[in-house]
Amino acid sequence: MYFLYKPVQTQFGLRLPTPNLVPRTVRLGLAERNGLYLGKCSKPEDVVMIQEYIVSFISEDAAKGMLVEVGDDNQFIIRRHKKSYKVSEEEAKHYLKQLGNFLTKLQVRTSIGYEVGDLYDLFADQAKRIDLLERLLLRLSYYILRGEEIPEEIKHSYLPLIEQYIQDVDSGEIRTRIDIEDIDEIFSKLKDKMSKITEIVEKDYLSKKDKDLDVALPVPKTIVANPVQKQDKEENTEESKWSRIKQQKE
Predict the structure, then answer these.
(1) Which of 123, 131, 134, 163: CA 20 to 30 A from 48?
(2) d(Cα 53, Cα 99) in Å, to the nearest integer?
């Protein structure tokens, strides 16, 4: 997998990570664009030691966009691992488009962080939205599924909120991503991501959960008395004392 990284400010100025900080399987400095550097690793754990430098992981197509060059014969070339191979104009455009989209996404994330809030703020906001929707859905479902009339106090509690939201949506006061993007595309992406997450959890977690691990437990150490101490102890017995006195008289 590929990742983008950048220099970090230290007391000695801007510094990039050095190869001695990562396993040999990690490759740094494959390409550079707009102050961002391209690296490659086998798994995220390989770059834990340089995580402060990491900007984001990146798709292979977007990574190829950083590797595209134009050769002397005006052919598009991708150089990596000290090798090069030619690609068609369409392939080059695709790779550069993927890279451009990703770099734009990074810029948008930065703008959201400055103007709206950082990831912790956004997580907190999403938690509040989920809490609100969960309470509304479960409370209404409780009466609907039981075939009971929804109490008036419940209606008066939620109806004004729902009515205001609908009015704001219809008037354009509230706009969400589904108002500006293709709903089918959004749903397709979310579906693919959810399925991928489920696959990873099933393969890498649930299949290994609570399994007997082949781990060699440490062997308890046997404490052996110091021979010198044992000898000293024997010399202090009553029998040893009389033996020494007898030897002195003789």
Answers:
(1) 123
(2) 19
Q: How many residues does the chain have?
A: 250
Calculate the CA 103 to chain-centre distance: 19
E strand or H helix that includes residue 30: strand 27-33
Residue 189 CA: distances (Å) to CA of 122, 179, 183, 184, 194: 20, 16, 10, 9, 9
Q: What is the pLDDT of residue 232?
A: 55
Indicate whether 214 pLDDT > 80.
no
* Token output for 121: 């703020």
Structural contact between residues 67 and 86, judged by C-beta atoms closer than 8 angstroms:
no
Residue whose token pair is 């001695």: 20
Q: In whole angstroms, give the CA distance from residue 58 to residue 24.
A: 20
Under a CB-based contact definition with an 8 Å cutoff, are residues 138 and 131 in contact?
Answer: no
Cα–Cα distance, 189 to 238 (Å, whole number): 89
3-state secondary structure at position 29: strand
Model pLDDT for residues 35-47, shown as the tens digit of each residue: 889 988 888 888 8
Which structure tokens are listed for 54?
């990491």
CB atoms inside a 10 Å sphere around CB 198 = 11
Is residue 16 packed enough to be buried (19+ CB in 10 Å), middle (13-18) or exposed (0-12)?
Answer: middle
pTM, entire model: 0.66
